[in-house]
């Protein structure tokens, strides 16, 4: 529905990370993705893409400017909640929940469930400060619901229309973000494929499989001497999307054995 790629038998889009504490029984399937002889695996993942796309879609300008300057928008939230700049890691982590809960329609109780070091009686005024400072972020879900009900669809950053029935308008925010993320990854795949095809001998460097916001690639060891330059060029191809107002970033990992050992 959102444009995300899917597959079955096996479902390569849901290969659980063995380090994920939320998965009770983890099948170590990532061990099956191995580097061929004379190759290494390169694994590239978009960094914090969901929140970046939420901020872009809702048009919260202070957060857009902060991200584009390399700043920390969760820190902005902590400063707002605690009214001080010397917040702790735990306080920042609690405020991170606000940035994800409110845009998807979460209640005050859900948004504030991870806040620490704050009296219960201080939470309502703290949340009011947050809402006043970031109204577009907080009201993003309601805004998209109105869009879905008025039009019968939502539109991604790339102009793709995704049908949303009026009875399920609440799914619009998720469709808008996931649909935009899908458009980004598909463009990245095409660009990386073309980059590998036109700059290297066949088989020396190529994408293997996309998984959600990550792409697994293989690189011949003869290219390792130029790895930093190659990764810089591929990163630029993946992150250049003029339709998105927020700067995108990617993170690279490498494995000489398997995906599980990245």
Question: Short summary of the structure?
Answer:
With 262 residues, this protein is of the alpha+beta class. 43% of the residues lie in helices and 13% in strands. Strand 4 (205-211) and strand 5 (214-220) form a beta hairpin.
Biggest sheet strand order reads: 4-5-1-6
| Number of distinct helices | 10
Number of strands: 6
Estimate the helix proportion, in percent.
Answer: 40-55%
The major β-sheet equals: 4 strands, antiparallel
Distance between the termini: 31 Å
Which H/E pattern describes the elements? EHHHHHHHHEEHEEHE
Structural class of the helices, strands and pairings? alpha+beta
Radius of gyration: 21 Å
Q: Report the sheet-strand fraction.
A: 5-15%
Unreliable stretches, pLDDT < 50, 5 or more residues? Answer: none
pLDDT average, as an integer? 93
Overall 3D shape: globular
What does this structure look like?
This protein is of the alpha+beta class and 262 residues long. It has helices at 49-58, 61-68, 73-82, 89-101, 108-111, 123-133, 135-138, 140-151, 172-199, 227-239; strands spanning 39-46, 153-155, 161-163, 205-211, 214-220, 250-255. The chain has a four-stranded antiparallel β-sheet with strand order 4-5-1-6. Strands 2-3 form a two-stranded antiparallel sheet. A hairpin with a 5-residue loop joins strand 2 and strand 3. Helix 1 (49-58) packs across helix 9 (172-199) and helix 3 (73-82) packs across helix 4. It starts with 38 loop residues before the first strand and ends in a 7-residue tail after the last strand. 29% of the residues are buried. The mean pLDDT is 93.
């Amino acid at each position: 529905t959102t444009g995300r790629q899917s597959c079955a038998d096996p479902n390569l889009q849901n290969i659980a990370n063995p380090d994920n504490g939320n998965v009770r029984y983890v099948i170590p399937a990532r061990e099956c993705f191995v580097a061929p002889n004379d190759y290494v695996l390169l694994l590239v993942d978009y960094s914090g893409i969901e929140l970046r796309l939420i901020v872009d879609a809702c048009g919260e300008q202070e957060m857009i400017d902060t991200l584009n300057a390399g700043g920390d928008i969760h820190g902005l939230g902590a400063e707002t909640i605690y009214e001080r700049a010397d917040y702790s890691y735990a306080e920042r982590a609690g405020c991170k929940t606000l940035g994800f809960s409110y845009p998807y329609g979460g209640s005050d109780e859900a948004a504030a469930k991870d806040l620490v070091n704050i009296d219960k009686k201080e939470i309502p005024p703290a949340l009011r400060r947050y809402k006043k400072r970031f109204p577009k972020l907080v009201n993003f879900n309601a805004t998209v619901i109105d869009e879905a009900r008025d039009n019968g669809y939502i539109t991604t950053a790339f102009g793709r229309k995704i049908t949303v029935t009026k009875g399920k308008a609440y799914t619009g925010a998720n469709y808008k973000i996931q649909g935009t993320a899908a458009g980004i990854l598909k463009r990245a795949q095409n660009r990386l494929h073309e980059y590998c095809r036109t700059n290297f001998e066949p088989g020396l460097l190529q994408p293997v499989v996309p998984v959600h916001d990550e792409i697994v690639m293989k690189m011949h060891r003869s290219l390792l001497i130029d790895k930093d330059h190659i990764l810089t060029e591929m990163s630029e191809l993946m992150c250049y999307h003029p339709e998105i107002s927020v700067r995108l970033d990617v993170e690279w990992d490498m494995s000489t054995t398997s995906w599980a050992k990245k």
